[in-house]
# Entry
Amino acid sequence: MRRLRLGAVVVLLALGAAWPHQATAWGRDGHMVIGAVAYARLRAEDPAALAAVLTALRQHPHYADLLRGPDEWALDVDDADLAIFMQASRWADDVRSGRYEEFGRSNWHYVNYHLREGRLDPPGAPERDGFLLDALKRNHARVRSNDPTERAIALTWLFHLVGDSHQPLHNIANHAPEHPNGDRGGNLFYVRVEAAADTINLHWLWDDLVIGSNRFSDVRQRAIMLRNQPGLRPHELAEQTSELDFSTWIRDGAEIAVEHVYRNGALRGGTRERGTLLPAGYTASVQPIAHERATLAGYRLARLLSDAF
# Structure
C-alpha cells in the first residue's frame, strides 16, 4: 500500500480552522486553494498557458456571475486573474443546486473503491460507483475543443474534478459492519472531534482540513503557505506531480483512505445522534495529508493545463 512521503511536512496548527458543515470535496474553500496553487505554478512556469486558460475561461457562460468573483472583493488586475482560478475550481459545486443546477452532475464527483474486511476492491460500473474517472477523462479531452463554450465548461469541470480525485473520501466506500452497503465516502460515518463537540460526519471533517474560510485574502495566503511549506514545495513534489494517470491518482486516494482516514479499519463510526469520539491527535495527524493532497492537486492541475495549452 502506498504511503505518503510526509517526512518534513510540519503540522501548522495555525492553519486549523472551524469546520462548517459542507458535503463537497475539500469544501468550496479547499477547491479555491487548489485553484490558487495551480495559478501560482502556471504563473511561474508557463505564463503563456496561464494567459490562454484565462482567455478560455472568460468565454464561460457563467463568467460574469460565478467565475469573476464577487464585486466586493474589489481586486487589482493580477488578483482578479487569481480569483478566476479560485472561482473556476468551485464552479462544479456552485451549480449543484439553484439557478444553474442543470449543469450539476452529482455522480461525477466520486468513484468508489470498496473497503471490505481489510480488502480493497476496485470500482464497478460507473452507474453504481460514480463517474469521477470517466468525467476526468472526458473533460480533459474536451478542453481542446474548438467550441469556446464547450472548452470553458470543460475547464471548470477539470479544475474541480482534479481536486475531487485528491480527496481520499471521494475515492472509497467503507463497508464496515455498521454500513454493509458502504458509508458513502464517510458521509454516513459519524464522529466527534472533542467530547463536547457536535456530531459531524467524517467527510465534512476531511473537507475542511485544508481551510475553513472563503475570503479571498485567506485563500490566497493559505495557498502561499502550502507552496512554501517544507515537504510541499514544487521541487519536493516534482516526481509525484509528473504522475498524470487519473486511475493512479484515484487508487492512491483510496489507499490513503484505508491507511490514514480509517486507520486500517481501527477507526469506527457512531450514530447520527452520537458520533464516535475521534482518537486523540487524529486531526493533527491527518491534516498534513490533506495539505499534501490539495497541494499536489494544484500542481497536477497546472501541469495538465500547461500541456493542454
Q: What stands out?
A: Strands lie at 113-116, 119-121, 172-174, 190-192, 200-201, 276-277. The radius of gyration is 18 Å.
